[in-house]
Amino acid sequence: MHDVLKGKKVIFFDVGNTLDRPASGNWMFTRRFLELAGERFRSCTRERVVQAWNEGLRYLADNHLIRDTGEECDRFVRYYTILSDRLDLGFTAENTLEIARDRAFNMDNYILYPDTKRVLTGLSGSFRMGIISDTWPSIEQQLTALGIRQFFSFTTYSFELGVFKPDPRMFEDALSRCGCPAEETVFIDDGPRNVEGAAKLGITPVLIAADGDPGEDVPYTKIRSLSELL
């Protein structure tokens, strides 16, 4: 067992780029999006794509308090409409609805890292485990489809609070749900700012780089794979 887990009772996990990854290589540009956007998207300059991406994300951030997958689809219809308009992709209303629904309901968009289930199984006998994730209502279906929902006793999801990590409300909510003091918990995430936010509340941070070295000089434990926890 990794030294960082000594004396701990609860392990919190991020989901994306920690437990699983997008099948297309990008959380927003799903395979169905890429298929429908085709050459029009591939011919866009990086600058245009980044500008459209940022505008779309601002919309999602400003409208993140969501009740269910129906509202999630509505948000992503607008998001993909923004991308289409800014990048001249020519999506119809039917196209944007199809892409939004695919993102929310097609669980083939998500792939577990090879060691995820083995590690969660190994840790479940010694620790209670939870999730702290910037995500959407479809996350429950995603975790179930991936076969790992049963490992988590408590969850803190950004869409329920309307804020994203590293907002302290995310970590405060997680601590209140698990009922343990911060010093008895660990949080594993791929974002340096997120683990720093957890550390400020006394949670022991672990930075994971499942897809390569994050290149960040941080005073926290760094791992390249969940297997290092065992």
Description:
With 230 residues, the chain is an alpha/beta fold. The protein folds into two domains: 3-19 and 113-229, Rossmann fold, CATH 3.40.50.1000; 31-108. The protein has nine helices and eight strands. Strands 5-4-1-6-7-8 form a six-stranded parallel sheet. Strands 2-3 form a two-stranded antiparallel sheet. The longest helix is centred in the middle third of the chain and has 19 residues, at 69-87. The radius of gyration is 18 Å and the shape is elongated. The model has no long low-confidence stretch (mean pLDDT 95).
Question: In terms of topology, how is this protein built?
Answer:
Layout: E1 10-13, E2 20-22, H1 31-42, H2 46-62, H3 69-87, H4 93-105, E3 110-112, H5 116-124, E4 128-133, H6 139-145, E5 154-157, H7 158-161, H8 168-178, E6 185-189, H9 192-200, E7 204-208, E8 221-223
Parallel strand pairs: 1-4, 1-6, 4-5, 6-7, 7-8
Antiparallel strand pairs: 2-3
Helix pairs in contact: 2-3, 3-4
Into which percentage range does the β-strand content fall? 5-15%
Tell me the major beta sheet. 6 strands, parallel
Query: Total number of β-strand segments?
Result: 8
CATH fold topology of the largest domain: Rossmann fold
Task: Based on the coordinates given, report the CATH architecture of the largest domain.
Answer: 3-Layer(aba) Sandwich
Find the CATH superfamily of the largest domain.
HAD superfamily/HAD-like
Average residue pLDDT: 95
User: How helical, in percent, are the residues?
Assistant: 40-55%
- CATH class descriptor name of the largest domain: Alpha Beta
